[in-house]
Model the fold of this input.
Amino acid sequence: MTYLPKPKLHHPELPKNDLGYTRRDYEGSISTLCAGCGHDSISAAIIHACYELALPPHRIAKLSGIGCSSKTPTYFLGASHGFNSVHGRMPSVLTGAAAANRDLIYLGVSGDGDSASIGLGQFAHAMRRGVNMTYIVENNGVYGLTKGQFSATADRGAKNKKGATNQDAPIDMISMAMLLGASFVGRSFSGDKTQLVPLIKAALAHKGPAFIDVISPCVTFNNHEGSTKSYDYVREHNEAVNFLDVILGRQEITVDYSPGSVEVVRQHDGSLIKLRKINSEYDVNDKIAAMEYVQKHQSKGEIVTGLLYVDSDSQDMHDHLGTSSTPLNAMDDAALVPGSAALAKLNASLR
Amino acid sequence: MESSDIRNPDYFHKVVDCQYACPAHTPVPEYIRQIAAGRYADAYMVNWRSNLFPGILGRVCDRPCEPACRRGRVEEEPVAICRLKRVAADNKGDVLSMMPEPAAFNGKTIACVGAGPASLAVARDLALAGYKVVVFDGNAEAGGFVRQQIPKFRLPNEVIDEEVGYITRLGVEIRTNSYITSMRALLAEGFDAIFVGSGAPRGRELDAPGRWEAAANIHIGIDWLASVSFGHTKSVGKRVIVLGGGNTAMDCCRSARRLGGEDVKVIVRSGYEEMKASPWEKEDAIKEDIPIINMRVPKNVVHEDGKLVGMNFEIVRAVYDDKGRRSLVPTGEPDEFHAADDIIVAIGQENSFPWIEPDCGITFDRWGLPRLNPDTLQSTLPQVFFGGDAAFGPKNVIWAVAHGHQAAISIDKFCQGEDVTERPPLGITLVSQKMGIHEWSYDNAVSIDLRFKVPHAEKDVVLRDIYAEVELGFDREMAFKEAQRCLNCDVETVFAPKLCIECDACVDICPVDCLTFTTDAESEADLRLKLNAPARNLEQALYVATGLKTGNIMVKDEDVCLHCGMCAERCPTGAWDMQTFLLDQPQVVDLKQKKCQGAHSHGVPA
Done:
């Protein structure tokens, strides 16, 4: 951690996005996490992604639970809405916010403890319901705040810092998310921004529950020999299926097609995801095949990364429920409280 | 790509832009930190060792360091390095106890011709090492150009007296009113070596019809300034034209304002931007109600029976050919007449050695400059060395001092029978500044203040008294704030690839995006295209480190690094460290000491 402030001076040629903001305008306070924490790299990737998409900071809501990961929203998007909720309860707070105001861009940030242990049920139901959000799990395999016990995502056979071996089966959040109805699923590594930044951009542009599992080494408690979430291990076992570029609707599409290696996915907002395939067989639209592929490689100790599954015709919770397109805070009192006559009419219709 | 050779003294020296740009390579950030810490005497001594005249240079230096200052690249204006130097001189108190004592007489006697900055630098370096030095000067007081040509309202006599005094107290003998008229005679006196630091003493003549008819009221700038300086000239006409666009022209016009000139103007051939005068000197002149009129070529002097009336000027404009060469082309407008009671000609200085006999063994080139080895400053007559303006034509005080140091080394080697061309190597020392967790021994918080302005005395006061100093200098509080603008470029980011785990913490925190981890590249040009932020300043190095576990390379663009140390602060493995770079630039007396101590090694931590 540090308390030394980051100097305000920036590169003299720091570019501005369409809103006139520099990347530095999307930063938050200085991080108090351990120096070298993977989470800080994810924060930096989120800053890059929001800057590049030219998202208005005041239209973003960042929500989190408890843990090292859940501290990070303080360190990015300093001008956005933030809610630091109860442990594991970020998904339900986010669901409520999304139900009330569908116009904001929802970014849920959680960790493996927050989402795979105490908040596992919350995670599952937010996915099922199809809440329109980007859900990032900063996954380091340990409880860093309580000094490095194995978390629920630690691989069986992994060693902790003291040398003890994990005997429990790991929770695979990628497969769970696909199974539970997430319409955008990806995995990446905090140490690889070329893959992570476009993945976050594509997720932010996606309609419906977008889930990204980011392996994020805990530099203090899980970066040793025998760990399966250390910088070295993840680099050695990273099995990327693709890299992607996100092309915004207004940008000219100059895709350099070489058959079989590039695939373009169109999303609801008109943005395009240009997939540069590493594995030409891999089909991001086939959920069953994706699950099989991930499982197969997992059993070999490989970590499959990239955009793993996307449903480009996805719907979200508001579509399922047929809710009003106007956020609640934009409705007048008459619309919000239609009165007892309207209630009686509704009740009568259900008898 | 190959890793950068950070053990080469030049690598980090170049990163300390101010020090590298300074001809004398004064360790600027080092003394600025001392000023911030209130250690004025220490700051003075750092300067004194390197440039001898902190008080003088803190007022009149040409400041090659400031345009080089990194602050000017990451923000708007450089640190006011020169005026901070003056703060050290103004507040130092008694430094005599810190001054070194000369070594015992070594039996060798050296003559210096001219008592300007170059000769005085030679004299100090050699006197400390045990040489007897005799300095000859034709004027009544030592100092040369800084005494005669720089007006007192910019540089008071007391400052010169004090700093010349620190040299004479070492036993240097200064023979004033002793103009050397013959090199042959001087050679015959039996000195072991002779240093010529006689400056560029001749002002360039005005070549225009009427010049000699109206000679009584047409003055050569540097001669006129000397006459003002020694009190011989006490007044000037009400309407004065100063010809020329250099610093001497600025000194002439401002002096004229103080001697009764009411309508004083500077008229220059070139455009305002191309004028040789330092920007701040032009500003100071304009502030004293002196208009600068550009693009006017002197045509003829107008006089009535030898009484000056004024001058005609042809109006021109600048035209550039495809090679970028400028020519001044008449616009065709009618000539412009400016009335004047006096004209001061400050259009350049020339070298002149009427006292060196053509057959005494010293050869000159066709521009009248001595043929010298540019590194040793030795002339074609082995025991004669040149420095300052006398060596390569008019430059400035800090160059003269730099020449003085080099000439002193040459003279020492010559007198000891060593090879003059073998120059002492530069050494470096790198010392980690980490004190503990989150603790660095330097103040690395980057101030976002803009440059502070030096307070000036009231205009109507200074225009009435030619001895009243215009600049008042920073007070201690302002000096502290200005000193905090220094980015400590001598505290270097040193990278140890073996320790790096490529967690990206440094890349994420770097406020100026100067760090990149990337795959290897074929050439530096390719590499520059792969960086996280544009690196278009080709003058500045890329720090490349290979040997990372992943096969990637670390690239740092030195151009806009703030030396804030955040990379080292955020590094979990200590792969980045902040280390102070000290350039070991030997002077004569150090070489002597080293010889006594035996070999001296300077290691760079791996």
The first helix of chain B runs from residue 9 to 15. The mean pLDDT of chain B is 94.
